[in-house]
Amino acid sequence: MQRRTKLIIAGAIAVFIALVATLTLLYVNVWAAPTKQDFEKAKAAVKSLGTTFDEVSSASAAYAATFSSGSSAKPDSEKTLKNRYESSVKKLAQSLDEIENMKAIRDKEVRSANNALRKKADAFIHYSNGFVTMKKSFAECNDILQVSRQTNVAKAHREASKDCLATLDALAKSKVAVFANYARTFANGVRERQKIFDSYEKTNQPTEKSVSDLKKANATLVGSLDLEALQKASQDASGARELQKLEQLLSQKITQS
């Protein structure tokens, strides 16, 4: 009986020790307030984040330029620039995750400021992806405007619009309204042109009627991109202010610690 009692006591002590150890770990890793060193570490990470944002902007501009009219970029260089852009976006996401997991984020004010930055960073990435895809669509859709005088115009237009429509349909899913609206409107115009060409060849529709319908469809293409909305989306996607606010807040926390 005495031996059993000793075992129970020993077991209880072991459980108590384990509980204390667990609570200590929770306090150190979850509950303890951030120290001055924690804020300093976070500030250094946030400060370097500006360079990471700049790299995404630079890489997206370089990649998008490969789709510009008159670009001399070769397929291999286009692939290299695409990889550079995708790597820059991945690095930005990783850096944001690392900051979010830092002890300084336990502070309520810091956490709030960081959440605001994350929201802007998401918008920034969505805008960058949309911008690149939009420029790609410009290049891929340009050749559909060159097929109106060919003999088998319906077939030629269908072939020319395959890559164009695939890119537009993908862009139509963008979370940035200006890109999604442009993609849907332009794609509708391309499909309307196809219907006109098909009707012209299958029903012997009068040339004058086809030309008139084409002018209307082409007008849809021309007015598909809202330039003012594009500029506003670019401004809305900038996280410069939120980045500055977070860095300034961390400086204050360092001084107060």
Describe the structure.
This protein has 257 residues and is mainly α. Helix content is 81%, strand content 0%. It is built from nine helices and no strands. Helix 2 runs antiparallel to helix 3 (75-100), helix 4 (108-141) packs antiparallel against helix 5 (153-171) and helix 6 runs antiparallel to helix 7 (207-222). The radius of gyration is 29 Å and the shape is elongated.
Looking at this protein, list some descriptive labels.
single chain; 257 residues; mainly alpha; 9 helices
Rg value:
29 Å
Find the structural class using helix and strand composition: mainly alpha
- The pLDDT mean sits at 85
Percent in helix: over 70%
**What form results from the Cα inertia axes?**
elongated
Strand content: under 5%
The H-and-E topology, N to C, reads as HHHHHHHHH
- Number of E-type strands: 0
User: How many helices does DSSP assign?
Assistant: 9
List the helices and strands and how they pair.
Layout: H1 2-31, H2 36-65, H3 75-100, H4 108-141, H5 153-171, H6 177-203, H7 207-222, H8 227-236, H9 240-256
Helix pairs in contact: 2-3, 2-4, 2-9, 3-4, 4-5, 4-9, 5-6, 6-7
